[in-house]
Design a protein that fits this description.
Blueprint lengths: L2 H8 L16 H8 L3 H9 L9 H28 L20
Helix pairs in contact: 2-3
Length: 103
């Protein structure tokens, strides 16, 4: 693993740290919150995945939408449903509303 990942292991957001979801968050704080290096957060901003100066809540929503999109690209709507803990238990072999509506 690269140097950045060792630094990530050393830094943690303490349980007592509070994040105001409605206030802007910096790249390092967001990276620590979701477990990715600051450099990756910077690239997500650069590629318009995360809006510059966004709040913690906005960035979390954008990041989750991005991750769900990646799952969809690899596994389709059923994969998104499973990732969200909504696996098909109806016995209808994946024929459900997940393949009808986009994120």
């Amino acid at each position: 693993m690269g140097r950045g990942s060792n630094e990530m292991k050393k830094k943690r957001i303490a349980k007592t740290d509070e994040v105001d979801l409605d206030k802007p968050i910096n790249q390092e704080q967001f990276g620590l919150m979701v477990g990715i290096p600051q450099q990756t957060v910077s690239k997500l901003v650069q590629f318009c995945v995360l809006a510059p100066g966004g709040s913690a809540k906005t960035w979390m929503q954008q990041y989750m939408r991005f991750q769900l999109g990646r799952i969809y690209q690899k596994k389709g709507w059923q994969g998104v449903a499973i990732a969200m803990g909504e696996g098909d238990q109806s016995g209808n072999n994946g024929n459900n509303d997940y393949d009808k509506e986009p994120l």
